């Protein structure tokens, strides 16, 4: 599946915040020839599009996947924007990142693709897999000694999120329940995304 592989610091500068996690930039203004000059007021459509792009870059999905998730959220009962964010949070690569098994979502995606992650004891290499409440996610037994994996597990903080629990003995975590919007730390205006797709 395709993914964004361009300059990450540039995207962080575009949105004025750390969309890609620990990628830093020396410049604190938007990229481009006129990035450091006064900018015109952004239109309502521009704000909505910006929020959608921010969500796509944050969770590492491209337009077709994102649209499919939005359509799925539209068919479910509840607040559409909130359900969309919950579906993004349930992606396997995101859960691996939230558990602290990888420093970034891109690294988590790579762990999944390279068959280092198990779900309920079975190897799963589909980053977009939707994790369900009660499922256990961990490192494959023979992958626990890989230096990169061991370093990530030791350096990352666990148990940050109330919808996940971490067991250090087995190097695995459990997806307890679907997170509430108030618990999701991402600075995304999901209502703007709903308004954009509703046009």
Report on the structure:
- There is one protein chain.
- With 199 residues, the protein is α+β, with helices and mostly antiparallel strands.
- Helices cover 40% and strands 9% of the residues.
- The chain is built from 8 helices and 5 strands; from the N terminus they run ααααααβββαββα.
- Strands 2-1-3-5-4 form a 5-stranded antiparallel beta sheet, with helices on one face.
- The longest helix is centred in the first third of the chain and has 16 residues, at 44-59.
- It is globular.
Spatial order of strands in the largest sheet: 2-1-3-5-4
Give the CA-CA distance, first to last residue.
Answer: 28 Å
List the secondary-structure elements in sequence, H or E: HHHHHHEEEHEEH
What portion of residues is helical? 25-40%
State the assembly state of the protein chains: single chain
Number of helices: 8
Cα gyration radius (Å):
18 Å
Instruction: Report the average pLDDT across residues.
Output: 86
Class by alpha and beta content: alpha+beta
Strand-residue proportion: 5-15%
Q: What's the shape?
A: globular
User: How many strands, which pairing sense, and closed or not: the largest β-sheet?
Assistant: 5 strands, antiparallel
Please provide the count of β strands: 5
List the uncertain runs.
none
